[in-house]
Amino acid sequence: MDFTTKHLKNLMEEVYLEPPFREHVAHALEHPLNWRMERIETRWFIEACQRVATVNPLLLELAKLDFNLVQSIHKRELGKLSRWWTDLGLAQWLPFFRDRLTENYFWTVGWAFEPQFWSFSDMQTKLA
Question: Are the C-beta atoms of residues 60 and 49 closer than 8 Å to each other?
């Protein structure tokens, strides 16, 4: 990690980088890859690609559609989980019980964001 950080910082200081590459290097230094959540990183990358003129507009549009589609699936899943949590009524029976369903779901989606893993995120959110 020190090797990569040292050379990326050296690139930023000594070498002229075009603005899109400079932005990517600065982002990599600020948030290492292993600290990032993939879906949030996808959003950042889509926005960064919009500022580059050489990006294929069709691929950019497909990436936006995919992001929005998966986001709507997550929103629908969270709505179902929220109804389940309300119907369960643990927060009313046990006042010391923490009401952190959305936080648990967001954490779970950080691990497995793909729509085909909906059962994992559903069960993990309920168990957390």
Answer: yes
Q: List, in order, residues 6 or more apart from 48 with CB less than 8 Å away.
A: 20, 23, 24, 27
* pLDDT by 10s per residue, the chain, length 128: 688 888 888 877 877 777 777 888 888 888 777 777 888 888 888 998 898 888 899 999 999 999 999 999 989 999 998 999 888 887 788 777 777 888 888 888 877 878 788 788 888 887 76
Q: Which long-range contacts (CB under 8 A, 24 or more apart) does 17-25 make?
A: 19/51, 20/48, 20/51, 20/52, 23/48, 23/51, 24/48
Task: Give the tokens for residue 32.
Answer: 């290492």
Q: What are 113's two structure tokens?
A: 């964001």
Concatenate the DSSP letters of all residues of 13-67 into one string. Answer: HHS---HHHHHHHHHHHHS-GGG--HHHHHHHHHHHHHT-TTS-HHHHHHHHHHH
| Helical (H) or strand (E) element with 78 | helix 57-88
